[in-house]
Amino acid sequence: MKLKFTKMHGLGNDFVVIDCISQNISLSGAQFRFLADRHFGIGCDQILLVENPTRSDADFRYRIFNADGGEVEQCGNGARCFVRFVHDKGLTGKSEIRVETASGIIEPRLEADGQVTVNMGAPRFEPMEIPFLAEKRALTYPLPVGDKIIDISAVSMGNPHAVQVVDHIDYAPVAEQGTLIENHPAFPARVNAGFMQVVDRTHIKLRVFERGSGETLACGTGACAAAVAGITRGLLDAQVQVSTRGGELAIRWEGEGQPVWMTGPAVTVFEGEINL
Length: 276
Ligand SMILES: N[C@H](CCC[C@H](N)C(=O)O)C(=O)O
Fold this sequence. Notes:
Elements: E1 2-10, E2 13-19, H1 29-36, E3 46-51, E4 60-66, E5 71-72, H2 76-88, E6 99-101, E7 104-110, E8 116-119, E9 141-145, E10 148-156, E11 160-165, H3 174-182, E12 192-200, E13 203-210, E14 214-216, H4 220-232, E15 239-244, E16 247-253, E17 260-264, E18 267-275
Parallel strand pairs: 2-3, 4-6, 11-12, 13-15
Antiparallel strand pairs: 1-2, 1-18, 3-4, 4-5, 6-7, 7-8, 8-17, 9-10, 10-11, 12-13, 13-14, 15-16, 16-17
Bound molecules: 2,6-diaminopimelic acid.
Binding site for substrate: 13, 46, 66, 76-77, 159, 192, 210-211, 220-221
Pfam families: DAP_epimerase (PF01678)
Subcellular location: Cytoplasm
């Protein structure tokens, strides 16, 4: 089977984007892992599928598969690439679209300056909604990791995030703790592990060890979750610049029950075909 794809990235968080509207395909977990493989396949952090919606109030359906082949609920950097893709491919004439995801509707918008703004929906904090095994909701939670007890915020942006504050981002224990947190038994669906340095009330530095993909150069939902965690902890104002290893995201959140707004770039790198 010959498969057309587009290679894209959002701040170096890279994607294989597949038009499943013009191509009638169905891929297995093993095929997703092959496409994501940086030696034997194309190479990416996630594969994004563009499909027709199943809901009448959406323009498209957006499905996300991590490099390990698992399907997940949300991908923020991918959402920006999604709207750039459907617009550039002529699949829509709209610059703002409603996109159906496994965790609800998101609304990405192409800006005149080439950036993309996305309404990522409201964060969720109830342990059951994350999911996270805890007696009751708390501002932070002590989490045993290796021989340490770390202090995390647990937030869902549709997908689960465990965010900790670190003193200096370059020395954050991503290598030692990333996979231990990702696979922690307190997170039944596993979790994305965020490491946040607070520079000042309007600026953080962030690294994320992503569920199913390892450390990425940037994580959009991770940036949203970290900003929300910092705001709820009283460390940040509503507008936050998030510096990732791949570049800068702007996040805005006005508080509980309100949506998180994310603005950043979306880049098309090349078009390709691959035999599966
Ligand atoms: N690894 C994430 C999915 C991709 C999220 C990330 N690439 C983003 O930009 O939000 C998860 O398993 O929930």
